[in-house]
């Protein structure tokens, strides 16, 4: 089984990916893990990626695509299948993935899209507050400090401020929509309502995967 999981930051994609891997035994291929492994193993593409990272530069698409291809060619993929997570990030990478899969004799079976209203994600992602003295982290909605608290005693990181979160989501939506459209044209996408309890989301994910199988 060959799957791709998509979802905006904060949609719970990582949680659902872990549950899919545990339940179905597929190999979890996440961008960060893949890069670290390629550099540690000093593969051809790993060494190339490191040369850019060491200079503080973005890794070009052709190198990222090459690392994905190296990973998909490994033996566990044939045995276990895969769940791709965090790639492709652009339409160009999606086209490169199509080509890679064809060259390796693999087929993408389905795309699980964890769909959450962006407005609720702003609330979810911008609620984090940090106590100035202790450094303890809370969430205004999901994990507020006990009892009455003085907001002056807390601060927010720039990354957690609503306007920053909204900008990040806008960028992700703009990047992700063409990729979803590309896979919708191939009838591969199943949208999962992500604004539910985690276990209910996974129940829906499981039903979708069982239909794909």
From TrEMBL:
- Cite the binding residues for ATP: 10-15, 128, 137-138, 196
Q: Which organism is it from?
A: Streptococcus pluranimalium
Annotated HAMAP family: Adenylate_kinase_Adk (MF_00235)
Keywords of this entry? ATP-binding, Cytoplasm, Kinase, Nucleotide biosynthesis, Nucleotide-binding, Transferase
Q: Does the keyword Cytoplasm apply?
A: yes
Q: What is said about the domains?
A: Consists of three domains, a large central CORE domain and two small peripheral domains, NMPbind and LID, which undergo movements during catalysis. The LID domain closes over the site of phosphoryl transfer upon ATP binding. Assembling and dissambling the active center during each catalytic cycle provides an effective means to prevent ATP hydrolysis.
Its UniProt entry gives the catalysed reaction(s) as: AMP + ATP = 2 ADP
- GO aspect biological process, one term: AMP salvage
Chain spans, region NMP? 30-59
Localization, per the record, is: Cytoplasm
| Annotated residues for binding of AMP | 31, 36, 57-59, 86-89, 93, 157, 168
Q: What is this protein called?
A: Adenylate kinase
Predominant location category: cytoplasm
């Amino acid at each position: 089984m060959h799957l791709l999981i998509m979802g905006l930051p904060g949609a719970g994609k990582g949680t659902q990916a872990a549950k899919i891997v545990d339940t179905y035994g597929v190999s979890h291929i996440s961008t960060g893990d893949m890069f670290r492994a390629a550099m540690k193993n000093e593969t051809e593409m790993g060494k190339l990626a490191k040369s850019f990272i060491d200079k503080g530069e973005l890794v070009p698409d052709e190198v990222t695509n090459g690392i994905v291809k190296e990973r998909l060619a490994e033996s566990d993929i044939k045995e276990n299948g895969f769940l791709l997570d965090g790639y492709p990030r652009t339409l160009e990478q999606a086209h490169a993935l199509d080509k890679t899969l064809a060259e390796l004799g693999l087929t993408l079976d389905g795309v699980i899209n964890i769909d959450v209203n962006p407005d609720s994600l702003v609330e979810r992602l911008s609620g984090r507050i940090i106590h100035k003295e202790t450094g303890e982290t809370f969430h205004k909605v999901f994990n507020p400090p006990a009892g009455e608290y003085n907001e002056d005693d807390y601060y927010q990181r720039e990354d957690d401020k609503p306007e920053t979160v909204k900008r990040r989501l806008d960028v992700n939506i703009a990047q992700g929509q063409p990729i979803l459209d590309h896979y919708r044209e191939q009838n591969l996408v199943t949208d999962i309502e992500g604004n539910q309890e985690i276990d209910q989301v996974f129940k829906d994910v499981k039903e979708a995967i069982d239909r794909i199988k």
